[in-house]
Amino acid sequence: MPFKMPFFSSTRKHKGQDYNNLKNDCKKKGNLFIDTEFPPDDRSVFHTQGKLAGVVWKRPKQICDNPKLFVEGASAGDVTQGRIGNCWFVSAASCLAQNEEIWHNVIPNYKEQDWNEDKPDDYQGIFYFRFWRYGEWLEVVIDDFLPTVNDELIFIHSQSKNEFWSALLEKAYAKLFGCYEALDGGDLGEALEDFTGGVSEQIDLVKMGVADNPEERAILYKKFGKEMERNSLMAASIPALSSDEMESATSTGLVKGHAYGITAVKNIHLENQTFFSRLFKSDNKIPMIRLRNPWGQGEWKGAFSDGSDEWNKIPEEEKKRVGLTFEEDGEFWMSFDDYCQNFVHTAVCRVVNTSMFSINKTWHEGSAHGEWKKPDRAGGCANNRDTFLQNPQFLFDIKDAEDDVMFHLLQKTIRGKEGSDNLTVGFTIIQVEENRRYRIHDLTQHTIVTSTVFKNQRSIFLKHNLKQGRYVAVTCTFDQGLEESFLFRIYSANANDFKSLLHDKPQKSFLNCCASTPQMVTKVKVIRAEGLERQERTGADPYCIISCEGEKVRTKTASDTTAPEWNQSAVFFRTKPNKPLKIQIWNHNILKDTYMGKHVFMSTDDMKDSIVSVDLVGQGKQGDQQRPGKLTVMITQSRNFSAI
Description:
Mean pLDDT: 88
Number of helices: 12
Structural class: alpha+beta
Largest sheet: 7 strands, antiparallel
């Protein structure tokens, strides 16, 4: 699937700096660009007090004779970690190098930005990069000064001495957060999201138990293969459990507290049924995965490591097909079985296709910016029963019979500043009435479908299968009273009518200021019917229409039954409680639906979860007459609008 910037996505100039204007201004003045917003001195390296001895900021032409943005394109070997603990970013950049269309977006107009030996006067020492930040793309301008010691780059560098795209990319990203030190330590998915605008998922291989479960491991491998085909960016890590373990190597050569980019997921085919195919219980193929250490050295030492005996059993043409090389470049293969035994976390960042004109699977996006804010939008998690529903709420519909929906909560934290650590956050999905348009106030009146695990990560991802209906998502911090802003996004197969819920009840509009004020809220849940009249040989296809003060809500149609189960609800804000609430039952037909009966409710009493079983009536020659069947409903109604 080709990468495309979202059609309606906005682009903003970071710090108001326009690349073309700045470059033209330098050209007129005959000088090279110096970025006063990110000066070439210690202020751009540290946000705390600190200094690296012997650091000299140099332009690439002061480091080598023939500098280039790219030497023979971009590859994972172009990205080697320097003296700062930002392997999470380096691994993401390594993944970025594998996807030409994505890095074309992150490094736009790269040919025009590059050094041109034929037009040396066109070079003004200025570059720009593009990063996605909370729903918009930021263009970040930098000069080409880079920190060096003894003429060597001290941060990210390429294996080619005259290639600088990765070093300049890192500088632009450091500027985004204030300094290089702000990139020290991070989450695998952060930079992947910022390169793509995609949604990242953190997979815990240990909690999934895939190491000891061949069936689950096969499902996960198939998922990884699909994600790689869809241009998802992927990385893996083994957490360090103490400071002593940080960046320490295991007996197999893998490093703890370190991130590896995943660069390939492929089945390695065998020539004949061999020891390996029996060992891996495979049908003449072994599921394999290729990773890259961003240090550019230090590789896996187990089975299928570089130069190991296992490769001698693999046909030469198969080695060529997968691009096998044995170099000390930090890139290595391992079986997926070994991967699941040795790695703990995998980050998968999906580049979500929302194009209406694509032949591939497309998603419908719903997104909104929000904030947890005192006094009435920072209620904490569901443990805080009295305040939980004071959090931001978002409404959406699932219109298919069922849908695998993706959710992504992204808190807008800022790196490297005091008090900017991620909050512990999550969200809950609640099924609500079919016509719900206002905030919910009583959790006992609705069904919690699922909740995420609470994490102190920048983003929380959930993919969940939902049935047709209307839902509310409640985003929250774990603790009550904490404040932060966020972006919440969902992706579904069809239009989801996603929106923020701001009001507790209907509001008088400027154009309809004379409208009556609601007096009562009524929720009616149609549970079931039984003993309905058979409409055809196999039964009936009944559905309900719930009507109140001109508003109608239709339930789903039950198939081939005279005892349907609906379990669907509607809520009405009633300006005239004395007016009836009516439930009709109809039988669905191809040409014309058949009326089966109704019941009319007239009560104006307050009630909660009152379950009643009532008779049906229908129009006869002498007025309303009893019809076959009984209808069971549950009613809650109150003059207190926070009751539902």
